Amino acid sequence: MTFWEHLDELRKVLFRSAVVIAVLMAGIFMAKDFVFNTVVFAPIDSDFVLYRLIDKALVLLNMPTLPEFHLELINIDLSAQFFIHVSTTFYFALVLSVPFIIYQLWSFVSPALYENEKRAAKVAFAFSGVLFLLGVLVGYFLIFPLTLRFLGTYQVSYEVANQISLQSYISMFTWLILIMGVVFEMPSLAVILSKIGILTKSFLKKYRKHAFVVMLVLAAFITPSGDPFTLMAVGLPLYGLYELSILVCRDFDK
User: Which of 50-59, 154-163, 216-225, 237-246 is the most confident on average?
Assistant: First the structure.
C-alpha cells in the first residue's frame, strides 16, 4: 500500500471509532439522572460502597466507624452545568468505547508487523482494553473517593467552611479516573517490550528502588492537587503496576 492508502485506512479507523463514541454519547446524554445521580455523585455521600466496606471492616475490628460524610456541591457559572453535562458524557463514551478503539487500532497495525512482533503485540492488545477498564474502576471505587473524602473534609480552621464547586469536582473526577485507566496499561507495554527483547525481568528488578522514586514523581505530576495523601493514593498503585510488570516480563537469564 502507498502512503496515502495507509492514511485512508487510518481515516476509516478513526471514523468508525468516532461513530461509536457519538452513538454512546447520545445514549449517555439522555441518561443524565443515572449518570450523575447514581454514578458521578455517588462518592459524595456516606452510602458509597467503599465507605460502607470500610465501616464493616472497622466494626469487625471493634473500632469506631467513619463519621457521616456528605458534600454539598455548588455552581457559580451560568453555563457550567450544560457544558459539564456534555464533557462528562464524552468522557463516559470514550471509556466505554476503549475496547472497540483498541481493536480498530490492532486491525490497522497488525498487517505491518512481523510474526514475532505480532505474537507479542496480540497478547498486549487483547488485555489492554481490560486493563484500561480495570484502572478506571480502581480510580472510581478507590483512588477518587479516598482523595475526595480527605480533601473534602480537610479544614485549616473551623472558621472556613468547604464549598466545593461543581467544576472542581468534575475536573478531579474525570482526571483521576482517566489517568488511572492510562497508567494501568503499563503491564501491556511491558509485555510488548519484553517479547521483542528490549525489556527484561532482571532489568526491572535491578532498578526497583529507582522505579519507586520515579513513580512518586509521576504521581505528583498527574495528580490535580499537591497534597501528600493524593500523592500516595496514586503512587502506590503505580508501583504495584511496576511489580506486576516484573511478573509478566520474560526472564532471559533463565
Answer: 50-59
The answer on pLDDT for 194 being more than 70 is: yes
Arithmetic mean of pLDDT, 14-27: 95
The pLDDT of residue 145 is above 80: yes
Phi, psi (deg, nearest 5) at residue 165: -80, 150
Q: Of 100, 166, 173, nearest to 136 (Cα)?
A: 173
Which three cell numbers, joined as nine digits, stand for 93?
Answer: 463514551
Percent of the chain with pLDDT over 70: 94
Instruction: For residue 225, name the pLDDT band (cuts at 50, 70, 90).
Output: low
Q: Rg (Cα) of the chain, in Å, rounded?
A: 21
Q: Determine the Cα–Cα distance for residues 191 and 121; give it in Å rounded to an integer.
A: 8
What are the domain boundaries of the chain? 3-248
